[in-house]
Amino acid sequence: MPPAGIRFFDARRVRASSTHADIDNGIVESAGTSFSDISLVRVLGPKGWGMVSANNLDLSGKGELNRVLAEGLALARLTGDPVELAEPPRGGHRVPAPREDPGTLSLEEKTGVLAGIEKAAKLPGVTSTRATYVERTEEVSYTDSSGYEHAYTITRSGFSVLAVARRNGIAQMGRESLHTIHGFNLRHQEPLGVKAGETALALLDAGLAKGGRMRAVLDPELAGVFAHEAVGHASEGDLVKEGSSVLAGRIGERIGPDTLTIADDPALTEFGFEPVDAEGCRTARTEMVSRGRVNAYLHTRETLAALGNGMAGHGRAEGGDPPLVRMSNTFIETGDATLGEILAECGDGILLVGSRGGQVDPGRGVFQFNAEYGYLIENGEKTRMVRDVSLSGEILSTLHGILLCGNDRVMHQGYCGKGGQSVPVSDGSPHILLSEAVVGGSGTD
Amino acid sequence: MAVELIERILAAGGKAAQEVEVYLVEGTGISAELKREKVSIATGSRDWGVSIRTIDNGRIGVSATSSPAKWEECLAASLASMRLATPQEWKGLPDPAELRGDAPSFDDRVVPEPPAAQELIAGMLEGAGKHPVAKVTSGSAALSRSRVILANSRGVLYTAERTEVSCSLETICGQSTGSEFDHSAFLGIDPVRVGERAAFLAEYSAKGTVLETGQYDVLLSPLALAQLFGNILVPALSGRNVHAGRSRLAPLLGQKCMDGRIDLYDDPFARGMGATAWDAEGLPAARLDFVKAGALSSFAYDLKTAYRYGAGPTGSAVRGGFSGGPAIGVHNLVLDGPREAVTGDQALYVHDVVGAHTANPVSGDFSVECQNPAWVEGGGFREPVKKAMLSGNLFDALGEIGGIAPGSRVVGNSILPCVRFKGMQVIG
Fold first, then answer.
1. Is the dihedral of CA A336, A339, A341, A342 positive or negative?
2. With contact defined as beta carbons under 8 Å apart, do B192 and B126 qualify?
3. Do A438 and B427 touch (CB under 8 A)?
């Protein structure tokens, strides 16, 4: 039984070691390992949450636990928002065994393989190259006032490679990255270094896109970012509850074509995989949009109790930060159109390729993201390469305007920021065709 | 206790490396988070961390830990990192120096206790109440105190006390959103004004009209400007990017690179969030002029980059916390120049931008969605705009500006005015 005045408490401890290597133009700028140990204790008082975040918190002794709970309760008494919690789904997924455990490799070996990828990017005409490796192993332990306990260890690792090409005062860049939960993934990846170099060189000859409203084809990477930014964030239960989402109050409403299904699945063993969520809940797939209709929201126990329509298990936290409703592996389900059919249906428009990231204002229902580059589509054919193209739009009208979903879904990895926390995610989609998109570009002809 | 630990690390590290540097941070904080108009979460935090750099024959290693008991493991990891690093020209960590004592980074009145956070929350809600059509969706208030100690094996032992007070509020009116924030090292930020502005922006923008795609003069607020500067300009001023061929400004040293009215400098003693008397490697902090009357006069260097390329160190090392080594950055980036009224003729005012992090830092090209855009004319707001996307190149836009407005605002590690830009591409 929790102490008097406390309805519920839980504690999440993350002990982590982080390894990085940074090779810049052939020089090992830095490579090394750092360590952290941080805990968050959440105490649900008569109304809302009091939380205590601290390094090196050892709660195995009853005296220390009681002291922290008292501190949390005092903080909880400052709150006025009545919080209820839905019943937690229990049980966890097994963390996949790594194909090659990065922990068994020396830092020298990792840095050596990374150097090969960086070197591969140095094509004639490329003036600058940089490659970085990141690896983080987290030992996560969770316990709560019901006596439930769960612990797991997971390692995420990956690399990125950047190439810059310069000619006549013009500089352009190409960037490739690959991250995974399945072990050391740098071997035989020199072709990605070459691709980064080739992209930088090709962009030197690319034109500027003329901005405006037009038909657009999004490649799987950018369409995945679209699913994440435009639909995923707007489906987060905390934003829906606050009234900060255009999807609030639209359960069952048609917002896209029958062929459109958008889901988030933290149980999928992609980069955003969570064996249990940050509240110790079992993780599972949620379809936010199902056959064109708003189907469910993403939830923590708190937002599920407040809103319904979905399941808990989507709470994620960076280190000792509080769990927030977050996406994990978000994707548009595969359709049946081939890329050729999509380009032909587009007619005249633009193909946007790759992503430099994006951002959304889910309350206003407006998103923005930048492609790495694009191609004009003329008479159904991919033609001239263009650079520095972006896409913005209104979530609902853009979803309504999806004309075709391709049959070629691919997942890409990245990190998502919310509330000052960054967590690993993956996004994916097949190629999709939008009937009208607001394309940004500073070209005038 | 912290100093004793530092001495132990320096002594042990000195047996295996020529030089050792210890950077230690400890602090406490409190925050309160609003959901709609009620406090939903109150959090107390205690932070501790140490970063250790070891240097031997031009090889630099780094490691960090948040556990005092793990300092030996951390030191061993730093030494392992050092042995792996590519050796480079190295002329030593800084010696102790006389420091200015007037860096405005600490206010003894800042107490991270619940009443202060509650007062900020109440102020924001009072301000938002002046525009009741707009509803509060979320917000936060936070206060913190921390102590930062930097020591090295050459005898440097500097301590700085820091405080921070911040508050922010987000609002919505129909499908129009507004947000505002303020932060300072000192008590005295105005939560009522923050709340009022957040609610006003949501209410005003709700009546936005459609904008025709075209070329318009644009007024970027300090907030919008800070986003673009942070993602494009600051990286281009980094000596590392300059010498690595990733800065468009690289070939322009001594030449005109911006409008002749623009001065751009880093002032560690200005009343901003980055105020400090010493940089993250222990060099005395000093004003650094990047651009004087439009001409590029300097880039920013940390010790490593300065030694490698034979440049003079500029005291530009910064750290984002204890977890990692120092990096090149700015303390308080200031844009200044002759001030004038900039809202006489029609222009599109942009309060904030969405997606600045997607800009191309090498070329300077960006394309961002505008938050709370509005037409200004005749000295004030004329009409809100529903949706606008702004595309351009920051370096080109800074080449000939339309004017610098009176007043400046602290936004993170920058202190910026509102600037008028000429003929930018805006897509409606």
1. positive
2. yes
3. yes
What's the pLDDT band for A171 if we cut at 50, 70, 90?
A: confident
pLDDT cut 70: percent of chain B above it: 100
Asked if A27 lies within 8 A of B86 by C-beta distance, the reply is yes
Interchain pair A34, B41: CB under 8 A: no
What residues of chain A lie within 8 A of the CB of B73, using their CB? 35
Q: Which of B352, B341, B409, B426 is nearest to B377 (CA)?
A: B341
From the list B38, B80, B172, which residue is nearest A107 (CB)? Answer: B80
Cβ pair A244:B48 closer than 8 A: no
Residues B375 and B385: beta-carbon distance below 8 Å:
yes
| Interface predicted TM-score of the whole assembly (ipTM), two decimals | 0.92
Query: Which residues in chain A have Cβ-Cβ distances shorter than 8 Å to B362?
Result: 164, 171-173
Of A55, A212, A387, the CB nearest to B66: A55
pTM of the predicted protein model: 0.93
Pinpoint the alpha helices (H) of B217-338: 222-228, 234-237, 239-243, 303-309
Tokens, residue A315 = 């709470």
Residue type (1 letter), A44: L
| CA pair distance A403, A258, nearest whole angstrom | 10
User: Encoding tokens for residue A26?
Assistant: 């052939």
A contacts of B393 (beta carbons < 8 Å) = 442
Name chain A contacts of B177, Cβ cutoff 8 Å. Answer: 244, 361, 363-364
Domains of chain A: 8-205 (3.30.2290.10), 208-442 (no CATH)
Q: What is the tens place of the pLDDT at every residue in B221-231? A: 999 999 999 99
Contact B358 A49 (CB under 8 A): no
| Distant-in-sequence, close-in-space partners of A336: CB < 8 Å, separation ≥ 6 | A259, A405, A407
Domains of chain B: 2-202 (3.30.2290.10), 208-428 (no CATH)
Cα–Cα distance measured from residue B422 to residue B406, given in angstroms and rounded to the nearest whole number: 18
